[in-house]
Amino acid sequence: MDAAISAPFVTVRGLTFEYDTARAVDDVSFDIQRGTVTALVGPNGAGKTTLLRCLAGLEQPIAGAIAIDSVDVLESPRLAHRKLGFLQDFFGIYDALSVERNLLYAAAAQGIESDRLMPVALRAARAVGLEDRLAKLAGELSRGLRQRLAIARSLIHDPALLLLDEPAAGLDPEARLELSRLIRSLAGSGVTLIVSSHILSELEQYSTHMLAMRDGRTTGPSQIGGARAGAPRLKVTIGGSIDAAGRFLETQPGVGAVRVEPDGLSFDFAGDEAARHQLLRALMAADIPVTGFAVTGADLERLYMAGASE
Predict the structure, then answer these.
(1) Residues 23 and 147 grouped into a single domain
(2) Shared-domain flag, residues 139 and 181
(3) How many domains does the chain have?
(4) What's the number of CA atoms in the CB half-sphere (13 Å) around residue 168?
(5) What is the Cα–Cα distance from 152 to 256, expressed in whole angstroms?
(6) Is residue 227 part of a domain?
(7) How does pLDDT run across 127-183, given as a tens digit for each residue?
(8) In this structure, what CATH number is given to the domain that contains residue 293?
(9) From the centroid of its chain, how far is CA 80?
(10) Global pTM?
(11) How many angstroms separate the CA atoms of 109 and 93, rounded?
(12) What phi, psi does 260 have (nearest 5°)?
């Protein structure tokens, strides 16, 4: 049983892909565990999109192997597609159809039985917070809501793995915040995610691991501060005894992987914004001199820059 729990959910070995003029993925190997959120990071042109398309079975590499939940993606792409959802950078939805019709069409395209189409569509709408907009035309939605609809279409067949390529591209700050909440919610429900971006700030609030890519090669995945899927990493800056604050934090619900920083403490926190507020109130009530309290992406940035300097 322990071996099954620790077995990688995604396995890549020796993956190599070439375009006519360049090698986009160069002898890449890595494992990803079930229930994690992996940030696929790197500069533009590093090969991130090509890697995702290979994982999704949409590109045929010249060498290597890919397995998702023990299914060989290259040998059995259709079977692998049942286990994964893929939101590409330039996604397509049907503007002239309602949200409901978009989801029903996506469900039918996945081969879902006719008597299950509506329940499946409603489940996907609820998962992304669109259940109150089912009758609205997709073309009338904001950019952020269109993104949610595209993610819902990717989730329509209840995949265990979701691949997102630059999901926050073109979103305003409020829509990016909503997207972060959505990804944390999906991770908390058990979905394994790989999220590609070259902007670290898009990834810092929800990622548990980082897979860095440069010039077609990867390093990692590296764990980000011991984070758990769906749990952001927080930092509290302390004006007094850090040791006392650490002992107090370790007694609080939802707090894990507490680590001492030069000016305070960082820790995982499995709770929503209301729970975060209650934690801050508890710190203040315990007379702990809090001078700062925020979600932090320092671990992700530090890991990435450390890899870049090697």
Answers:
(1) yes
(2) yes
(3) 2
(4) 22
(5) 31
(6) no
(7) 888 999 999 999 999 988 998 999 999 999 999 999 999 888 877 888 887 888 888
(8) 3.30.70
(9) 19
(10) 0.77
(11) 13
(12) -80, 130
